[in-house]
Amino acid sequence: MRHDDEHEDQKDETVGYKRPPRRTRFQKGQSGNPQGRPKGALNLKTVVDRTIHEPVVITERGRKHTITKLEATVKQLTNKAAMGDARATAQLVALVQAQESQADAHDPATESLSEADQRVRARILRQLARQAKKGGTPHDAASDPV
Questions:
Q1: Which helix (H) or strand (E) holds 60?
Q2: 56: closest CA among 43, 70, 45?
Q3: Distance (Å, rounded) from C-alpha 49 to C-alpha 26?
Q4: How far is CA 5 from each of CA 16, 20, 22, rounded to the nearest angstrom?
Q5: Is the pTM of the predicted complex or chain greater than 0.90?
Q6: Of 54, 120, 124, 127, which is least packed with CB atoms within 10 Å of its CB?
């Protein structure tokens, strides 16, 4: 190819927004970031998730049980709070409140009900719980006056 032919090809090539010159484009098979994140590298969330779900063997009342590290941590926190540790109690209360607010945020039934409807719903749930304790069926609770 002559030098003049190369020059003519460059004139025909459109260069502009999202159209860099051919000579500056990445070569086929060449990465634009060769020193980037290696394949299989883990982020913090993945490492934490794997770690808290690892099994651990505990001895409770003379029997060995296998539970996750997360369960073991919550058990220890609860036991310390039950023994009167004020810091553990505060942490446990905060954990329970966060869990409840998260559960309420995901419960579409409580979002759309008025206050009166929520009271009726609570009364029905109490009746169902009473019937369950007595050994009745949910159909028996439905026939009770509200």
A1: strand 55-60
A2: 70
A3: 38
A4: 22, 20, 15
A5: no
A6: 54
Please give the distance of CA 74 from its chain centroid, rounded to a whole number: 17
Residue 141 and residue 127 in contact, taking contact as beta carbons nearer than 8 Å: yes
User: What is the tens place of the pLDDT at every residue in 41-64?
Assistant: 999 999 999 999 999 999 989 999
Instruction: Tally the C-alpha atoms within 13 A of residue 80's C-alpha that lie toward its C-beta.
Output: 15
Helix (H) or strand (E) holding 59: strand 55-60
Q: Which of 20-29, 80-89, 131-140 has the lowest mean pLDDT?
A: 131-140
Average pLDDT over residues 122-135: 79
Mean pLDDT of the chain: 81
Distance CA 53, CA 47 (A): 10
Alpha helix locations (H) across the chain? 3-12, 44-52, 69-82, 86-105, 108-112, 115-134, 138-142
Q: Please report the sign of the dihedral spanned by the C-alpha atoms of residue 90, residue 92, residue 96, residue 102.
A: positive
Within 13 Å of residue 36, how many CA atoms lie on the same side as its CB?
A: 7
Please, are residues 138 and 131 in contact by the beta-carbon 8 Å criterion? Answer: yes
